[in-house]
Amino acid sequence: MDQLLQHALNAMILGGTYALLGIGLTLIFGIMRVVNFTHGEVYAFGAYMMYMFVMLIGANFIVSLVLAVVLGVMLGALIEIVLLRRLRGADIDTTMLVMIGAGIAMQNSEQLVWSGVAKSINSPFPSAPLVMGAVSVSWTRLFVFAVAVVLIAATYALIQKTRLGKSMRATFQDREAAALMGVRIDRVHTATFALGSGLAAAAGALLGPVFVVYPTIGDLASLKAFAIVILGGLGSIPGATIGGFILAFMEELGAGYVSSGYRDAMGFLLIIVILLVKPTGLFARKERIG
């Protein structure tokens, strides 16, 4: 039982960052109908920016996190303006090929700049874990979980309570009608892609100090983000949030009770089973954004 509680605690902490990945991707797909193959590379970008600010420049840890997220938002806006805006109205095959190419270019750029050697990021938090009865957790992981929860809540608030969020929901429901009502679709798309990219960069910046950073770190992150979105239901923010925690929980169970080598396989196996039973995902519904 103690071991199960420890795995559940680890899954809760990891699930927060998985949820950030899933929410960012589902926002982009739900509003823009774009399959974003650069999502994992923006995650890697956030981790590398965290490494640069903390390890090379020596900036404050929290300031470095904020800067990494801001740069991720700016990178997302740049991708949307330079690539996706020019492809508005193009068929999905063309858009997918461009995004795949952009993802490959970003990954190779990271390897060129940072080399293929894995890099670690120092944490300012105490190395001794916080012990709570039979379970323990590092202070760094607690910080990661707290920030992830704050970002998830902030995203919900932005979607539900702000004028931008209302424009996003209107664009999701009916793009043409929203444009007739005065919604600037170009601006909504840029803001959506920037927000989704910022959440991916945040996940990378948060997990960089927990694990290590290397150029292909975005590959598995991208696969997990797509799996979370499909599991929760395409376009569903609550589904992406819960899907992230489900995937993390299955990974922890697989690593703890089967083998650490099957950690990723257990999560994807669960997704296969769920999709066989419910092909639309767990939380798909007609109005899926918000």
UniProtKB/TrEMBL annotation:
Keywords: Amino-acid transport, Cell membrane, Membrane, Transmembrane, Transmembrane helix, Transport
Broad class of where this protein is predominantly found: membrane
InterPro entries named in the record: ABC_transp_permease, BCAA_transport_permease
GO cellular component, one term: plasma membrane
GO molecular function: transmembrane transporter activity
Membrane topology: Multi-pass membrane protein
Swiss-Prot/TrEMBL GO biological process terms: amino acid transport
Cellular location(s): Cell membrane
Chain ranges passing through the membrane: 12-35, 65-84, 138-159, 191-214, 226-250, 262-284
Similarity comment text for this entry: Belongs to the binding-protein-dependent transport system permease family. LivHM subfamily.
This protein's name: Branched-chain amino acid ABC transporter permease
Provenance organism: Rhodoplanes roseus
